[in-house]
Amino acid sequence: MLDRLANNPVAVYDATWTLLIANAPYDALMGPTTNWRGIERNGVWRNLIGPGTRAVQTSEERAALQAGLVADLRVTASRYPADQRLKQLIRELSAQSPRFVELWDAGSPELHHDVGRRKVIDHPDVGRIALDCDTLVVAGDNLRIMIFTAEPDTEDAERLGLAIVLGTQTFAEQVIYSRNAVDVIFILGALS
C-alpha cells in the first residue's frame, strides 16, 4: 500500500499510536523518523511530553488532540489488558506527564479523529502547507494509516512537492555521506 501512495506522505501506527513505518515523503514533510527509538516513536508521548510535530495548532486544538490520543490509548488498554508493552507505556506516560494522568483519570470518551481534517504543517524549508489529513483504521489489525494530501494544482500542492524533493535529496545526501564514511572506515580498517 505504501508503494501505491509513494507520492503522498504516509505513516502507519499501531493501536497505541506507536509509529511502525513512514515513507520518505512523510519524513520529508514531518522530519526524519528513522532515528526515533523506543518511546520516541509513540505519538501520545510526542504530543504530551516530547517535541510534538510540525503541525500548527491552537491551544484548543492541541488540547483536543491530546485528549483524543489518551482516549484512544484508554480504549486500546481495555481491549488488551494483559499487554505488558502497553502497560509499560502507560506507566512511563503517567510518570512523565501530569497532563496524561489528568486526561487518563478523566476518562474522556472523545476518540482522536483525523478523517478529512485540514492540517497546516510548518515546514522549515518551504513554510506553511495546508493539507488534508486522513487517518484510516484497518479493521481487525488495529493499524492506523495517516495520509496527507494537497488539493491539486494549488500553491500547497507545489509546496508539498518541493518539501518532498528537498527532503528526499537531503536523505540521499546523508546516505551517500554515511556510505562514504563507512567505506573510509572499511579501507582504514583493512590497511591497519
TrEMBL record:
Q: Which InterPro entries match?
A: MLTR_LBD
Please report the name of this protein according to its UniProt entry.
Answer: MmyB-like transcription regulator ligand binding domain-containing protein
Q: Which residues form the MmyB-like transcription regulator ligand binding domain?
A: 1-160
